[in-house]
Amino acid sequence: EKHEYMIFLDLELTSGFYDRATVGPPKILEAALVITDTNMSEKGRGQWVVGDYGKEELQKLGEFHQQTFRDAEPGGEFPPLASATVGGNGLFSDVLRSKLSLANVEDAMLALVTKYCPENACPLVGFSVHCDREVLLSEMPRFSNYLSHQIVDLSSLLRMGRLWLPQKFEHWDKRESKYNHRALNDVEASIETLAWIRDNLFLQPPA
To answer: What is the helix (H) or strand (E) element at residue 88, kind and residue range?
Structure first.
């Protein structure tokens, strides 16, 4: 049933949870959604970069953003910082190239979700997804109002799993993570994570 579908979400923002007091309210740079059924089989996906920012605005964002969102190689608008040990993921350059406004992105996200999910029925799923939900309330109220009030926060599930079943994480901690602070990659990582949580923390072995 469609009301049991899940909306995996990730947002890349102009400020994080801990620096909003100094940087200001977070704004959306990039968004991605993947909608799945209860078995995490994909039904639809989308990824959007918001082009509402200029080069100077992006250069004024915090240290984490400069380390993470600049280009992977020199030669572009946002060469890696001299202090960076690895190149960035290129989001800043994608922002400059994007022709989409925040309203365009909200329209596209709402269109995708309404195609697969009844109103107020399907939960958001993701890492610390309550933080993204807070941003949606102010940045994308129409999209936010369509969602269920429920969320599935993977960070909380992982935290409790480490407290109660620490032995289960020995293999998990050795995996190669795809998480790279680009929205679609992080959504795909969250789907893999929920599948692991289901198989290793929730399902009981047969008697």
So the answer is: none
Q: Which of 164, 196, 163 is nearest to 178 (CA)?
A: 196
What's the pLDDT at 85? 74
The series of mean pLDDT values per 10 residues for the chain, 207 residues long, is 91 87 88 96 98 95 92 90 83 97 98 97 96 96 96 96 93 82 95 94 74
Angle at 81 between CA 77 and CA 83, to 5 degrees: 175
Whole-number Å distance between alpha carbons of 144 and 198:
27
Burial classification of residue 77, based on how many CB atoms lie within 10 Å of its CB (0-12 exposed, 13-18 middle, 19 or more buried)? middle
- Contact, 185 vs 193, CB < 8 A? no
Contact 87, 72 (CB under 8 A): yes
- Whose CA is closest to 30, among 47, 49, 46? 49
